[in-house]
Amino acid sequence: MHELAITQSVVDSVCERAGGRPVRSVRVRVGVLTAVVPDSMRFCFGLVTEGTAAEGAQLEIDQPPGAGRCRTCAVEFTLTDLILLCPCGSADVEITSGQELQIVSMEVG
């Protein structure tokens, strides 16, 4: 379960930035192509925040869709998984969205 390690890193970063102030909410952007399961991340968030400045904080997860651009025909299209095939049949695809994994914002109180 890589969500635990990812969530731990998020909480560590948030708590460091909070400087001891209580954290009320954290918003992260986790693209659909990252293979991170949002429900698992929420579960892990509750565990790893215990005893930290982020204990009791709300976790909000934005999930941008996957998108790609074919290097062969230049068409842009939606990706729902990591099978990188353009509708034209080419596998020469550049991922342009959906692999994001970042802390967008946090609210401290």
TrEMBL record:
Q: Name one GO molecular function term.
A: zinc ion binding
Whether Metal-binding counts among this entry's keywords is yes
Q: Which residues are Zn(2+)-binding?
A: C70, C73, C86, C88
Give the keywords, sorted: Metal-binding, Nickel, Zinc
* Biological process, per Gene Ontology: protein maturation
Q: Where, in this chain's numbering, is Ni(2+) bound?
A: H2
Q: What is the top-level taxon of the source organism?
A: Bacteria
Pfam families found in the cross-reference section: HypA
Q: Does the keyword Zinc apply?
A: yes
Q: Which family does it belong to?
A: Belongs to the HypA/HybF family.
PANTHER family with a match to the protein in the record: HYDROGENASE MATURATION FACTOR HYPA
Function field:
Involved in the maturation of [NiFe] hydrogenases. Required for nickel insertion into the metal center of the hydrogenase.
Name of the protein: Hydrogenase maturation factor HypA
**What is the source species?**
Streptomyces atratus
Query: What gene codes for this chain?
Result: hypA
